[in-house]
Design goal:
- The structure holds 2 protein chains of 2 kinds.
- By secondary structure, chain A is an all-alpha fold.
- Chain A has one domain.
- Chain A is about 80% helix and about 0% strand.
- Chain A is built from 11 helices and no strands.
- Chain B has 2 domains: about 240 residues, P-loop containing nucleotide triphosphate hydrolases (Rossmann fold); about 70 residues, Alpha-Beta Plaits (2-Layer Sandwich).
- Chain B is built from 11 helices and 14 strands.
- The chains are: A mainly alpha, B alpha/beta.
- At the A-B interface, helix 1 and helix 5 of A face helix 2 and helix 3 of B.
- The complex binds adenosine-5'-diphosphate (ADP) and magnesium ion (MG).
- The site of adenosine-5'-diphosphate has 12 residues of chain B, from helix 1.
Chain lengths: ~250, ~325
């Protein structure tokens, strides 16, 4: 293992966060807080409880998930896309560093950032709504697994993207809609029967449900299935990354 | 010279630090950028890879450094096969690519330290300091890269390549678009690296540059290595001159009294060709004229022609095989 290289890339990526503190931390915290203010304090008091949880508290896990996923993707995709774009990737390709080490350092840094952001948003939410955490360990496990999985997914997008538009398109057009339709703002048993079935095709449903279960001990789908789904997605991303590096796809000619 | 790839004539010398056998590169577009390249580079040499734009210089370097996948063939760096043992190979190499690419918001110190870490070396501020001072970057160490001029950025890229104390340094077109001062200081750095045993491979399409710096010169054209030779031998060729004696009256044979000058009768007997080396102590020109006079041969005109490296190069590049230059050399030797 080239630990010096992993440390160098990880440190480089974390330093980038401090330079872009506003964009990568402050702005998602503020925008999520707005949801808490609007749905938690203002409208939330007029909405019935969902599954025995006040509406303001009910939406917190889903909103954290939303930030976690979009930030993981944008952090990791940008981290690998940018060196390709400006050409500094030559150094990475010519260094005595394995693909596993490259993935560990980039995905590790992106996941660290988004997990930290998720915890900051969680901390912020205490100011606005009354929440409790029934299974703290499972909560952290979901947080970490989601951060890692989506950072890996972002890494793949960053390698695949050959322009800035492609970089934005997946988080904007796929992840955000799936999250909004994935039970962040409602329990899926509030949907008509047919939509309950269709919704189960949305992978984000399992993440939000599992994550919310770790807070309030209530879930749309079985927690074991939620964990399994993350595992499947993680495995799929790993397979794709392995293939990318084996072929040098979009990295080497 | 035997047909086939022009190998080193120092086969019995120490193991080469870079050894390339049967290397081919076909890009996805189908373009055959490297054609059966065989090349050895000796440890401690400054090797200049000379060739016109698009010859495949960058491609060759990129394959050795791991940036471009070879299609087939084998490359070893100090015995380490570049794919099976990429760590062993790449640890030894520092690369300064042709394009000027740096981060924007990093400081000079941070980016050079980053490179050292990337190549698996523990922190060594003293070494980074030395590299930055050697390249006159010390004053700029806390400056952000985006604030530096192009020349300074080029220095930073060299500093990055030297950060991990490589044994081999690749400089891809190091002086393209570089001002005189930087060029000079770059050569100083290169010479001092060489004095410390670092092997340097540079590419250029300027003959002058190869001539000034290199121990050995390889010429590449259209993906083929067409000549590899000691610089001094090439320079010897450079000293070769042809004196053409245009005759007042044509002759059928060269008179016996002129035999020792080994003249060639050309132009249907209207001219005599004398080949000599201007670098020799005795060129034989004086005695040739004396003998011509006593043989009663009257001259209409004379002209001399020097085969410059440029010419040798152009010659080589125009023709697919290195025959012309090799023949000229052989003739000169036979005559000697
Ligand atoms: N990624 C690529 N795909 C297809 N052709 C390429 C690629 N990179 C370089 N080439 C072609 O390969 C040839 C050699 O290029 P290069 O090695 O950059 O030459 P040099 O460095 O000697 O100027 C050129 O004709 C160039 O157009
Ligand atoms: Mg080039």
């Amino acid at each position: 293992m080239n630990f010096h290289a992993i440390a160098a890339i990880y440190k480089f990526e974390m330093a980038r966060t401090w330079r872009t503190l506003f964009q990568s931390v402050v702005s998602p915290v503020i925008s999520t807080s707005l949801y808490f203010v609007v749905f938690g304090s203002a409208i939330g008091s007029r909405i019935d409880e969902v599954q025995g949880v006040s509406y303001g508290a009910f939406i917190v896990p889903g909103l954290i998930m939303l930030s976690l996923m979009t930030q993981s993707i944008s952090n990791a995709s940008f981290a690998i896309y940018f060196p390709k774009f400006i050409g500094t990737v030559y150094e990475l390709l010519s260094a005595p560093i394995s693909y596993v080490e490259i993935v560990i350092s980039y995905v590790g840094a992106a996941a660290t950032k988004s997990a930290a952001l998720g915890l900051i948003i969680l901390g912020t939410s205490f100011f606005f709504v009354d929440i409790s955490i029934a299974h703290p360990f499972m909560m952290l496990l979901f947080l970490a697994l989601t951060a890692i999985t989506f950072s890996l997914f972002g890494f793949i997008i960053g390698i695949w993207a050959d322009n800035f538009e492609k970089l934005q398109i997946v988080p904007l057009l796929i992840v955000t809609p799936l999250t909004f339709l994935g039970g962040t703002f409602y329990s899926i048993d509030m949907l008509p029967a047919i939509w309950q079935k269709i919704t189960l095709l949305n992978p984000v449903v399992y993440l939000v449900s599992g994550f919310r279960w770790s807070f309030y001990d209530v879930a749309d789908v079985n927690v074991g299935i939620s964990l399994l789904m993350i595992g499947v997605f993680l495995a799929a991303c790993l397979v794709i990354v392995a293939w990318i590096f084996k072929t040098g796809y979009r990295l080497k000619s | 010279m035997p047909a086939g790839p022009p190998f080193s004539d120092k086969d019995d010398a120490v193991q080469p630090i870079i050894s390339i056998r049967g290397l081919n590169k076909r890009y996805d577009s189908g373009f055959h950028a490297l054609k059966n390249v065989n090349l050895d580079i000796a440890d401690g040499d400054i090797f200049a890879l000379l060739g016109p734009n698009g010859a495949g210089k960058t491609t060759l370097i990129s394959v050795i450094c791991g940036i471009v996948n070879p299609s087939d063939g084998e490359v070893r760096v100090d015995g380490h096969e570049i794919i099976a043992d990429y760590r062993g190979a790449r640890e030894l190499i520092g690369l300064v690519p042709q394009e000027l690419t740096t981060d924007a918001f990093e400081t000079v110190w941070a980016t050079v330290s980053f490179s050292r870490g990337l190549f698996g070396k523990p922190k060594n501020p003293a070494h980074i300091e030395k590299v930055l001072k050697d390249l006159s970057l010390w004053d700029k160490r806390n400056d952000m890269l985006m604030t530096l001029s192009g020349g300074m950025k080029r220095r930073v890229m060299i500093a990055k390549a030297l950060s991990h104390e490589p044994r081999i340094l690749f400089l891809d077109e190091p002086t393209a678009g570089v001002d005189v001062e930087l060029r000079r200081s770059m050569w100083e750095v290169v010479r001092s690296l060489r004095a410390h045993g670092v092997t340097i491979i540079l590419t250029t399409h300027y003959l002058e540059e190869a001539e000034q710096m290199a121990d050995r010169i390889g010429v590449i054209n259209a993906g083929e290595i067409i000549l590899v030779e000691e610089k001094n031998e090439l320079m010897q060729k450079l000293g070769e001159k042809r004196l053409t004696l245009h005759l007042q009256d044509s002759i059928d044979t060269v008179p016996d009294t002129l035999a020792r000058h080994e003249l060639d009768l050309v132009d249907n007997g209207h001219a005599l060709l004398y080949t000599y080396n201007a670098n020799d102590k005795r060129t034989g020109v004086n005695s040739l004229f004396r003998d011509l006079d006593s043989a009663g041969i009257r001259l209409r005109d004379v002209d001399t022609k020097q085969s410059s490296l440029e010419e040798i190069f152009v010659d080589l590049v125009k023709t697919p095989t290195p025959e012309p230059a090799a023949d000229a050399q052989a003739t000169a030797k036979d005559n000697a």
